[in-house]
Amino acid sequence: MRGRAVSLTLAGLLFTGVPALAAPPGAVLLADTNRNGSVDGADLAGKGRWTPQRGAIFLPNLDDDAKRCKVTEDDLKDYSIEVDLRLAACNDAQDDVVNGPLDLADLAPLRTLPRKASQDGTVSLGAGEGRYARLWIERGGSWTSLGEGGTLTAKELTDGAKLALEGRDVIRDKSAWNGVVTVTLKVSGSADSVQLRVAPLIMQSDLKAPRTVVTSKPPVETERGYPEFLGDLKKAMTAAKLPESALTRVTDYDEWFQDIFEPTTASMPGPGGQPQVLHVLLRSANLRTSDFSSGGGGSSLRAAGRLVFTTLRGPGVGVVQQFTGERDETVDDSLNSTGNYESLPPYRGHPLGRPLYGSVASRKPDPSFTRLIDSQYADPVVIDTSWLIVGHSDETTHVIPARTARGWTLMIADPRLAIEVMRKATKDGHGDAVLFDGTSEKKKPTIDEALADPVFLEQNETAAQHIDTQIAVLTRETGLTERELVRVPVLFEEVHLAQIDELVASGRIPPQTKAGLQKRTVPERVFGAHTAGIPNGISLGGGVFGAPDPHGPRVGGVDLFKRETERALTGIPLKVSWVEDWDFAHKWLGEVHCITNALREPTKADWWRA
Asked: Which N-terminal stretch is annotated as signal sequence (predicted)?
């Protein structure tokens, strides 16, 4: 989808079929107002005021087409935020050259209408807009930055100046900047303007196939559970017809790759009307306390997040970093992990889809990060994940395809269904089947033993009631009915203080979460998946879902939870490829989704046609 050139030519006939000499008097500045990928006379009407239906679009040029941004070994050893700020500030919009044809394709074309001029003129951005965009002009076959504005010579005005607009940032707070810039041309007492708006960041949809799957490569690849996980992930990718080259493994001790960045795309009309697409990775706003930072003082952003700079940033892939250190005690850093940020695909009334994340007043993510998410002109859906110790939206829900007019539905973790499956097994004479068979778990109760435990039953009913609350929000916001939901069996358990200490020590949750429990900003009772959370898998395209092996009770060699999941998917265009993640992820309250990430085809590349 990513274009290799942009239409920057200007012939003697700018207006289709209308000679330049017949043009309206005075200054005339044009952009791709009709969004067909070129600049011509059809762009004249309505160019002065951007609307959803008409108006030119520009990209936030935050990628690194020439691969000039380097991360040194010294950078990686220094965990200070100053280094993170410097790394994030390196991109194509921050240098003073156009880095070849790929970079040029990321600029939005502007043109002045050729007219006889005896005096120089000027072109400029609106007041204060230079921090968000800058202007370029082609002179002598090369491109020169004009910054916020500059002089156009009389000859350039006579010939018709070739200009371009480069975006320098995304919308971070729409109350401070709504993404619109105004470019004004002034010539001999006349003036003309055109408005453009920066492309919004559109979150990826799990309905789209991945181009790249990213996962960790532990320094010791024989780490318990990793070979099994990797082997099954590769099998699932093969089932989805993804080439082996689509898998990128990055060496890091922090395996929670879903939690360190959230992929989005930005796009504008390119040559021939084809979308010019830029992938923009949102680095997680995980701000860790002093024990994670160099020198033993201050705070540091999550170190593993630097892989967006070392491995992923490059041609067509940019990075945005957004966080604030001004947080009150209700901000829980675990909710800043980007496993908490998912998306709902487009549907009626929401053509760009909708972000989905977990937050409540007493336990919420970084407010500056959610403000950025909320500013992309796609209303978020917010659910309560505070009852989960990790607190992520991906723990209980997953978007899957459906043969309906909407085209999708939600897979939902259902503890009541898990209990129902177990009770039926007992009724059928299989109460001696054990849970967690084939795992390293020390306690492997039989079905009968589990069902005889009132604490076990109460904890799963409590988790089910919390999920009911999530479902009520999701069905109300999307129009999905209860009957459309695909429920799969997942058992939950209450997480106690000793387990929380282990999770903090492992790096799965930050110390702030434990502190929140002590201050009661985190609920007194918190839960996690007991059997592997089946919805917490990875969509691989080709109708394949890489789901964590639940290790439910087995009867006659058949895992009852797997069988029930496959039954629930009857009529759904999706097949499960089971992935072993028990020792590598599940024991630390994570699953396949948590330890992978993906760069996908855009949710809506031509979003302006939505």
From this structure: 1-22
Per-residue pLDDT at 6 exceeds 70: no
User: Under a CB-based contact definition with an 8 Å cutoff, are residues 264 and 202 in contact?
Assistant: yes
d(CA 398, CA 413): 9
Percent of the chain, pLDDT > 90? 86
* Contact residues for 216 (Cβ-Cβ < 8 A; gap 6+): 249, 250, 251, 252, 254, 255, 257, 595
Mean pLDDT confidence for 18-41: 79
The whole-chain average pLDDT of the chain stands at 92
Task: Give CA–CA dist 3/408, Å, rounded.
Answer: 30
**Average pLDDT score over residue span 117-126:** 97
Do residues 129 and 181 make contact, with C-beta atoms less than 8 angstroms apart?
yes
Residue labelled with tokens 């917490």: 536
Using CA atoms, how far residue 289 sits from 301, 382, 390, 402, 518, in Å, is 9, 27, 17, 43, 17
Given a contact cutoff of 8 angstroms between Cβ atoms, the answer to whether 362 and 169 are in contact is no
- Residue 586 near residue 568 (C-beta atoms within 8 A): no
What residues have CB less than 8 Å from 260, skipping those under 6 apart? 254, 283, 284, 286, 302, 304, 305, 307, 308, 337, 338, 597
316 C-beta neighbours (distance < 10 Å), count: 19
pLDDT for residue 25 is more than 70: no
Digit-coded pLDDT (tens) for 343-367: 999 999 999 999 999 999 999 999 9
Taking the CB of residue 2, how many other CB atoms lie within 10 A of it?
Answer: 19
| pLDDT of 486 higher than 90 | yes
Helix 454-478 to helix 415-427 angle (10° resolution) is 130
What are residue 182's DSSP bridge partners?
Answer: 195
Pairing of strands 354-358, 341-344: antiparallel
Q: What contacts 588, CB < 8 A, 6 or more positions away? A: 503, 506, 508
Note the pLDDT of residue 521: 65
Amino acid at residue number 520:
R
Average confidence (pLDDT) over 528-557: 98
Domain boundaries, the chain: 203-285+322-609
The predicted structure's pLDDT at residue 320: 99
Tell me the residue type at 508: R
> What confidence tens digit (pLDDT) does each residue in 424-470 have?
999 999 999 999 999 999 999 999 999 999 999 999 999 999 999 99
pTM: 0.92
How many residues in total does the chain contain?
610
7 pLDDT higher than 80: no
Radius of gyration of the chain (CA): 27
Residue 309 DSSP class = I
119 DSSP 8-state letter:
S
CA nearest to 278, candidates 371, 202, 365? 202
User: Please, what's the largest Cα pairwise distance for the chain?
Assistant: 97
Could you identify the residue written with the tokens 């965990």? 79
Query: Given its phi and psi angles, is residue 34 left (phi above 0), alpha (psi -120 to 50 degrees) or beta?
Result: alpha
